[in-house]
Design a protein that fits this description.
Layout: E1 7-11, H1 16-27, E2 31-36, H2 39-51, E3 55-60, H3 67-80, E4 85-88, H4 106-133, E5 137-142, H5 155-175, E6 180-187, H6 193-198, H7 201-209, H8 219-230, E7 241-244, H9 255-264
Parallel strand pairs: 1-2, 1-4, 2-3, 4-5, 5-6, 6-7
Helix pairs in contact: 1-8, 3-4, 4-5
């Protein structure tokens, strides 16, 4: 029960990595708010976790409506008196339009930056005064290895995640005096429903070819890293950018080819 009696909110938390984080928090004793657009989708999780004895509630948040970040935070604080943990999990990219530097329209590029960076900025800006007033808190941003390793596509997504990595360090620096910590978790390829449904097997195989731990991550792998940053176990840790990617991008760029050559011998 590493989060016993903590109040937490996780954005985009009704499926995938966000859902795994919310479930992990709830089972570790936190009262968790699922921040999402669909109360109906959230209810499925709430009903299941409530039967397990967990405390889970819904709070409305729509990434396309900037004002809902502030209203989300204020609603929770009004109900609970405080908010101890914020997980900025929302992230988006239109793979059909977010392409390379030559093919991506500027408006699409700005839209991706606005949604992804804005989600972290607005939620963090809204929660910091409340955390400071109550003696501290933990903000965890879900970024991506795509913000560390340049790609041949998704220029908006990669740029936005790189900005989130830097924003994490800025928030950590500017709020440490109020005992607020801010860290980021950077997933690699993770076996969410969206990944399994939208990425071809060939692409998955190619990605894993360059991953030393030769498998996809699971949402639970990411959730466990986030749990560390949310818990008091990381009370002296802030401004850290933790890749949870099986080592993707770490070794020599010809790693995958060298392994294949070695295996042929």
């Amino acid at each position: 029960m590493r989060l016993k009696d903590k109040i937490a909110v996780v954005t985009a938390s009704t499926r995938g990595i966000g859902a795994a984080i919310a479930e992990t928090f709830a089972r570790e004793g936190a009262k968790v708010y699922l921040a999402a657009r669909s109360a109906e989708r959230a209810k499925i999780m709430i009903d299941r976790l409530t039967k397990e004895g967990c405390f889970v509630s819904f709070v409305y948040n729509d990434a396309l409506k900037q004002e809902t970040y502030k209203s989300m935070i204020e609603e929770i604080v009004e109900k609970e008196g405080r908010l101890d943990i914020l997980v900025n999990n929302f992230g988006t990219s239109n793979a059909d339009k977010d392409l390379d530097i030559q093919s991506t329209e500027y408006a699409e590029f700005l839209k991706t930056l606005d949604l992804n960076i804005g989600s972290v900025f607005l939620a963090s800006q809204a929660v910091i005064p409340h955390m400071a007033k109550n003696g501290g808190g933990s903000i965890i941003n879900i970024s991506s290895v795509g913000g560390s390793v340049p790609d041949i596509s998704q220029i908006g997504y990669g740029t936005s995640k790189a900005a989130i990595n830097y924003l994490t360090k800025l928030i950590a620096t500017q709020t440490a005096r109020d005992n607020i910590r801010c860290n980021a978790v950077l997933p690699g390829m993770t076996a969410t429903d969206a990944v399994m449904q939208n990425l071809t097997q060939n692409f998955q195989d190619f990605f894993l070819k360059h991953t030393p731990i030769k498998r996809m991550g699971t949402p639970d792998n990411i959730a466990q890293a986030v749990l560390y940053f949310a818990s008091d176990e990381s009370s002296f840790t802030t401004g850290q950018i933790m890749e949870v990617s099986g080592g993707f991008g770490m070794p020599t760029p010809i790693f995958g080819d060298m392994i294949e050559l070695k295996n042929r011998r």
